[in-house]
Structure formats: C-alpha cells, structure tokens
Amino acid sequence: MNTPILLNRNLINFGIPLGLLVVIIFLMQSPFLKGNDVINFAITVDLLLTVPLIYFLLIRKSKIPKTTVIPVMVIGLLVGSYFLPKEDQTYLDLFKNWALPIIELSILTLVIIKVRKAVVTYKKLKNVSPDFYDTLKNFCSEILPKKLVFPFATEVAVFYYGFIHWKSRQPENNEYTYHKNSGTPALLGGFILVIAIETIALHYLLAQWNVIIAWTLTGLSIYTAVQLLVFAKALSKRPIIITEETLLLRYGIMNESQIPMADIDSVVLSKKELEKNKLTRTLSPLRDLESHNVIINLKRENTLQGVYGIKKNFKTIGLHIDEPHDFIEEIEKALQSN
Prior knowledge:
Elements: H1 2-28, H2 37-59, H3 69-83, H4 90-126, H5 132-143, H6 146-163, E1 175-176, H7 184-207, H8 211-237, E2 240-242, E3 246-251, E4 255-260, E5 264-269, E6 280-282, E7 294-306, E8 311-319, H9 324-337
Parallel strand pairs: 6-8
Antiparallel strand pairs: 1-2, 2-3, 3-4, 4-7, 5-7, 7-8
Helix pairs in contact: 1-2, 2-3, 4-5, 5-6, 6-8, 7-8
C-alpha cells in the first residue's frame, strides 16, 4: 500500500516542477517574447525562484532533503542558458555573476558551521577527538544523494583544510602518524613548485594567443596547487587509529580504509617490494614514489576508499608508519584480545 502512495507523491513532487519547466521552455520559444524586457525578467524569475519555491513547498513535509532545492535552481539556470536567446539573458547573467557565487559560498559556510558544531558536540559527549572529514561525510550522506557525498565532501574538505584548519594536532596514544619521516610532504611541495613555474610560463605564452584560455588554465593550475597543499596538510590532521576491534587506515583525505581486527591475517615490518596484482595496494596513492615499512595481509578482501569516492579492493596493503615497531606491537595486542 505504501509503495503506490509513495510513487504517486514523488510523481507530484517532481512532475509539477518538471511540467512548469516544460511550459516555460515553450514560452521561451515564442517569437512574441523576443526583446520584451519585462517578460524576459518574469521568465528568469520563474526559472530561478518560482519553480524552486513550488518544489520546496511540495517536498517540505517529505523525506526528500530540502537541499535538493539548489539542484532544481541550477536546472532552471541551465534551461534558461540553453533555451533563452543570448540577447535576452541579461537578468540570467546577473544571477550567474552575482547571486550564484553568494549562494555557493553561503551553502559552503553553512555546511562547515554545522559540521564543526557536530564535531564539538560529539567531542563533549564521547570525550574524544572526532575527525572533521568523517563527520562531514556523515553529514553530507544525510542531505545529499549517495553519488554526490564524496565529491562534495572532498571539495568542502579542500576549502576547510586549506583555509580554515591551521591548528596542529597531537596524536593520542592509539593514533599513529605517517608523515614525519616520509618524503611525501616534500614531494607534494616539489609538485606545487613545478606547477607554479610552469603556470607562469604557460600563462605568458597563451596570453599572447587567447587571454580567456590563458586565465582559465591558470585558474585550474592554481586550484590544483591548492589541492596538493591541502593533501599535504591533511596528512598531519588524520592519523591512523587502532582500536580494540578496528584498524582505521588513513592517508590524509586521499585514501582510507576501515579494517576489522578479525580480518587481519598478519602484520609484518618489511620494506620488501609488493607483488604486482589487483589485490595488492599501497595506502599512499603515490605508490612506488613513497616507500613502505609495514605490510598488512588480510584474510578477506577489504575496500580502499580514495579521493572523490574512488574504490579499490585489496587483501595486502603496504604503508609507512613513523613508529612502526610500536604500531605492530599495538596491533598484535589488539589481535590477541580479539
């Protein structure tokens, strides 16, 4: 009984806004509207405000996340950009250039504030130091479709670790660092330097041909450099954690895996080269560019979750630990207790 009712309700929730968009598209094709500034303004308002507002009123008492109003607004923006004649997109361009960046920044700020509050609350209740990125992913999973959780969380994490979180973090007794004796921070710093040098030279050459393309590629290069900086910073913010039942492997925000202690077959201190097969991985995405000193073998396959939600299975994984002997001793204790 509930399934037909739910389907009918969803048909109303999504069908009415979709029908309104179809009607607006037909209106935009009318030759009588060309050059009419008042009607073009009304159509822009309908696309960006009226349709999202009607959609919000339809879903406000349902389980559909209220944040889906934003994608509806973006769809209206895309529809207007495609079907409205270029000369009639004055108000649409104003929205793109002024309102849209403010909305994006407001959403980003709201997410960070809510996640930070959740982190503080969790810390008070549990008396532990929760992880911002984990809390962010949990929060995003409640308000976003599953496929958008990791991409959105990654972008927010880049902004947070890059521009907000500068405080150093001291590891707890059951936490282990992997960046102090590793060459990864220096390697990422070298990549950033190379990007900076090549960007300046490439921008100078492209600017003589096309200024817009030159600045577009320069912007992408700057963002790539910021991402690398964030990846390097996050290494010290997200240590590896050993609990009685779980080994939580982390490599900044680039890779992570949660391994039940019962699934661990062996942990050995070794710098031996890993076998090249589909179920052998390194915790570092840099693979052979960073050496490992610990190898973990599992009884069954586990999943390594990468940046933007990319998944890879493994049964053997190599990683670098700053204090490998203490790390192995702690895991052996946990294995014995299990």
